[in-house]
Amino acid sequence: MMDNFDNIELQNKLERVINLLRKYRLVEGLVQMQDSPRQELIESVTQKQNLASLQKLIDTLHPADIAYILESLPLEDRLFLWKFVKVENDGEVLLEVSDAVRETLIADMGSNELVAAAEQLDADEIADIAPNLPDDVIEDVYRALPQEEREQLRAAMSYPEDSVGALMDFDIITIREDVRLEVVLRYLRFLGELPDHTDQLFVVDRNELLQGVLMLNQLLVNDPETMVSNVMTKEGVKFHPHDNAQQATQAFERYDLVSASVVDADGKLLGRVTVNAVIDFIRNKAESEARNLAGLSEQEDLFAPIWKSVRNRWAWLAINLVTAFIASRVIGLFEDSIEKLVALAALMPIVAGVGGNSGNQTITMIVRALALGQVSTENTVKLITKEIGVSLVNGFLWGGIVGLFTFLIYQNASLGLVMALAMILNLLLAALVGVIIPLTRKKLGRDPAIGSSVLITAVTDSGGFFIFLGLATLLLL
Asked: What's 216's domain CATH number?
C-alpha cells in the first residue's frame, strides 16, 4: 500500500510540473503575439509567478523524484527544468537518472558546472557517472580531490562494472578492538552522523586488516565499559573486489544483509557493499536483460532523437526481417497445399504463436538460471530432459484441445489430428531451441539474453509452419 501511495504522489508531482510548464509555454506564446508593452509587462509578471511556483516545487523534491520527472519529459522541457535544479543537487540527480538521459543533461552543462556537480559526490559515486563525463572534466575533478579520495576514485574506476568493486562504497566507519564501547559511542557522537545503511562498524587493526564487526545493536545494549573485543563478531560474509557482482547480490538476498565488507587478498579492509547498491544493480540488470531479450543494443532515452533510436533498434529488426522472409519461403513451398485446403492458412498462425510463447517461457527460465549460476555442464542434460517433458505435457494437453476445436469447426478429424501433432512437435522444437540458444551464447562468451526472443520466434515461426504444412501435405492431400 505504501509503494502504491508513493507512486500516486510521484505521478501527482509530475502532473504539477507538466501543468506549470504548459502554463509557461502558453503565456510565452501570448507575449510574443502582443504588441502592447503594458500587456507584455502583465504577462511578464505572470511568467515570474509561474517560474517561482516551478522553482518552489523543484526545491521540495528528492533527487530521485527529480530524476524520474526529467526522464518523463521531452528533451526541450527536460533541459528547461534542469536549470531549476539546485547546484548542490546536480550530482545526486545525475546519479539517479538513466545513462541515456544523463548524456542529454551533461551535454547541456559547462565544464565548470560538471566539476562542481561531481565534487558533491563521493569517489564511488563519481566513478558511476565517470563514463558519461568528458575527459577534461574527469581530470579537473581528479585534481580537486584530496589524495585519499583520488586513490579511491582510481580504484573504483579500475574494476569491471559487473564486479563487487564497482558496487563498493568507501564511506565506512572503522574502530579498534582494544577500546571500550563508551569510547566508540563518543566517537560516533563526534562524527555527528552515520553513513547511510550502517548496521555494523568494522573492527580493524593498525594495518587496516579486518578483525571482525561490531553490530550497532550490540553497541547500544551492552555496558559502555565493555571492550569491543568482547562483543564483536566475525563477519559471516565478506567479498573481494573482483568477485562477481551477481553472486554478491544473491548473498545479500540469501542472508538478508544490509552491508558487507570488501577486503583484498591479505584481508585489508577496502570498503563495503550496501543493500542500496545491490538493489540498484539488480534493477539495472533486470532492465538490461529486458532490453537484450527484445534485441535493443543499449539503454534508450524515451524521448531520444529518431535517428538515435533507429540505430539502437535496427540490427535485430534486420535479423527479424531475414527470418520473416525465410518463414514466408517455407509457406511458399506449400502454396499448392494451402490452395487445396484453405483452412490451413487460418490455422498455421496458431501453431507458430503458441510455439513462440512456449519458447520464450523456456528462454526466460534459462537466462535467469544462468544469471544465478544454477546451470552447469553436469546438469545441462537433465535441464533439456525436463524442458522436453514440460513441452510434451503441454503439447498433448493443448494440442488435444486445439485439435478438438479444429475438428468441431471444420468437421475434419484428420485436420484436427494434424493440428494436434503439429502443436506437439513445435512445442518440442521450442523447448530444445529455448535451451540451446542461451546456452550456446553463454558458451561463446556472449550475453545469453541478447536477441534470444527474436531468435526463438524466428525458429518457432519457420519450424511451426514447416511442421504443420508438411504434416498436412503428407496426411491430408
From this structure: 3.10.580.10
Number of domains in the chain: 3
Whether 129 and 251 map to the same domain: the answer is: no
As to burial, measured by CB atoms within 10 angstroms (0-12 exposed, 13-18 middle, 19+ buried), residue 122 is middle
Shared domain check, 97 and 37: yes
**Together in a domain, 44 and 147:** yes
Cell of 445: 562468451
The model's pLDDT over 446-461, given as tens digits with 9 standing for 90+, comes to 777 776 777 888 888 8
Residue carrying the nine cell digits 539546485: 86
The answer to the question of residue 314 being in a domain is yes
Q: Indicate whether 399 and 330 sit together in one domain.
A: yes
Could you tell me the pTM of the whole model? 0.72
Count of beta carbons in the 10 Å neighbourhood of residue 124: 22
Give the integer Cα–Cα distance in Å for 416 and 427: 17
HSE-up (13 A, CA, CB side) for residue 190: 7
Query: What is the rounded distance in angstroms from the CA atom of residue 103 to the CA atom of residue 396?
Result: 52
Which CATH number belongs to the domain containing residue 97 in this structure? Answer: 1.25.60.10
Q: In this structure, are strands 238-239 and 210-215 parallel, antiparallel, or unpaired? A: unpaired
The answer to whether 148 and 245 have CB atoms below 8 angstroms apart is no
- For residue 340, name the pLDDT band (cuts at 50, 70, 90): confident
Q: How far apart are CA 26 and CA 19, in angstroms?
A: 10
Report the alpha-carbon distance of residue 4 to residue 10 in Å, rounded: 10
**Rounded CA gap, 334 and 327, in Å?**
12
Q: Is residue 89 part of a domain?
A: yes
* Shared-domain flag, residues 367 and 454: yes
Q: Is the same domain home to 69 and 145?
A: yes
First to last CA, the chain: 60
Whether residues 325 and 259 share a domain: the answer is no
Contact assessment for residue 263 and residue 270, using Cβ atoms and an 8 Å cutoff = yes
Side-chain half-sphere exposure of 36, counting CA atoms within 13 A = 6
What are the backbone angles phi and psi of residue 241, rounded to the nearest 5°? -60, -25
Domain enclosing residue 234, as ranges: 174-277
- Asked if residue 163 is part of any domain, the answer here is no
Q: How far is CA 114 from CA 68, 111, 151, 170, 418, in A?
A: 20, 5, 20, 22, 66
Taking only the tens place, the pLDDT of each residue in 136-170 is 898 988 888 888 888 888 888 899 988 999 999 99
Which residues, at least 6 apart from 111, have a Cβ–Cβ distance to it below 8 Å? 134, 136, 137, 140
Between CA 73 and CA 91 the distance in angstroms is: 19
